[in-house]
Structure formats: structure tokens, C-alpha cells
Amino acid sequence: MIDLTKRIWYITIIKIVMIHNHSKKQTFFKNKRVYLKQRGKKMSRRLLIENYITLLPMLYRTLFRDFPNCGVTKLQMKLLYYLKIEGGKPMNYYAKKIMVSKPNMSVLAEKMINEGFIEKGTFEGDKRVTTLKLTKMGGDFLDAEMNKFINHLLDKLSVFEDKEIERLNEMIEEITDMFSKVRNDN
Length: 186
Fold this sequence. Notes:
The chain is mostly helical. It has 8 helices and 2 strands; from the N terminus they run ααααααββαα.
């Protein structure tokens, strides 16, 4: 218990110092890695988790926070996206994909049907099963928003040189391959 308390204290102190002293950030990360390497493989996994927890908010702040609101919620946008790539499946399939309950999925679908973005259908094998499809209006809306989003990200990534972009792509592909071992598709 004392060892865990020391680790938590050490990581907390490093974070506080890093927040107040941005110029020495790399040194503190190096010291943190050295400290955690001394603790073995479990600490390497803990370092991975710590880095992951640090990376996600940084990516959001850097790339996505200032993206303008498009008039639909994130869940609605996710649903439109999944309908575009895998349209015509049962409603509960999309509920699992966007991680909402079936009752919430019904409310979400009804709202989007009323707005004209999607339409209901019936499953060929079972008339009781409701399927969802993207309408032309929904497809056009999604395409326009995706183009805005891509242009926004291209603008953000313009600060990198071509070699840095290639390296980022390689790292992301490698990370994706590694995490495919633990991936749990619904």
C-alpha cells in the first residue's frame, strides 16, 4: 500500500510540476519513465495507461475543441456515420455501435426521422424488427459535415512537415495494429 501511495504521489507531483513548468516537460517525462521502468512490467502498463489518459484530452483540445457545432449532437452524427457505412441493419445493431440503450436509440431515431435524416424500414426475415436507412438529405448533410471536418483537420495538421506526417501515420498504424489484439467489437 505504501508503494502504491508513493507511485501516486510521484505521478501527482510530476503532473503539478509539469503544469507549472512547461519548458522542462520532456525532462519530467523522462524522469517519470525512469522511475516507472525501475518498477517493472506492471508499471510499464501503468505508464501506458497514464500516457493514454494524457493523450486523449490533448488530442481533443488540439484538434477538435474549436470545431464549429454542426446542428446535430455527437450521437446523431455517429448514427449518421454508421448508417452511411452499414445502412439497413436492425436498430439494436446501431444502438450497440453508438453505445446507447434500446429505448434511447428509439428516441434518437424518431428525432432524426422527424428531421428527415433517416427512415425506418422492416427487416426481411422478421417484420417486427425495425431497420434504419440514411435518406438522401441525411447523406448530403453527413457528406457536407465530413468535408468541413476534414478541412478543419487538414488546417490543424498543416503545421507538420511531410516527414512528420509520415511518421505520425506509421505510429498510428502501429498502435492500431497493437490494440487490435484487445479490441472488442460489438
